[in-house]
What we know:
Its cofactor is heme b. The protein is mainly alpha-helical.
Amino acid sequence: MAEFLTDIETIRARARQEIDKGPVTDAYGADLGRVLQVLNEALATEIVCTLRYKRHYFTATGLFSEPVAAEFLEHAREEQEHADRFAGRIVQLGGEPDFDPDTLTGRAHAQYDASGDLVAMIKEDLIAERVAIAAYTEIAQWLGDKDPTTRRVFEDVLAQEEEHADDMRGLLERLPQERPGPAS
Length: 184
């Protein structure tokens, strides 16, 4: 049988100390304050993405808008689920999820978009997904083994963001693109 690095009596004694910290023990290796800040930035990102996708869902028009709008709505729901996961992890770590609408876009990695053209909407959503992919990849690498649970949350969300980017790229490939008109 493998031995623990720390004897069980010491682990039990430590578990009784600072019981109010919940899952954050002496073994937690990350900078908790910074992790909570990063989680709140990701929460803001997901809320902004939810709002952007919702706007695009409601304002998509044109010949090809119905299936694209349906994709926007599905992504909006999934982005909200991501926000909920980040908020839940913040609370689990003893932090406060920041839903303040006055500072939301300033804290988010992705930007809000109010494009009126269907192709522009898809492009902006693809850009936002790519921003989230780059940020969440970097965050997961930064967390490493210091906070494996938060890292896994980011990795799970990252996998879905990659699917979203692939969906948006696929929509762009299927939609007719604007062609430049003849030169005058």
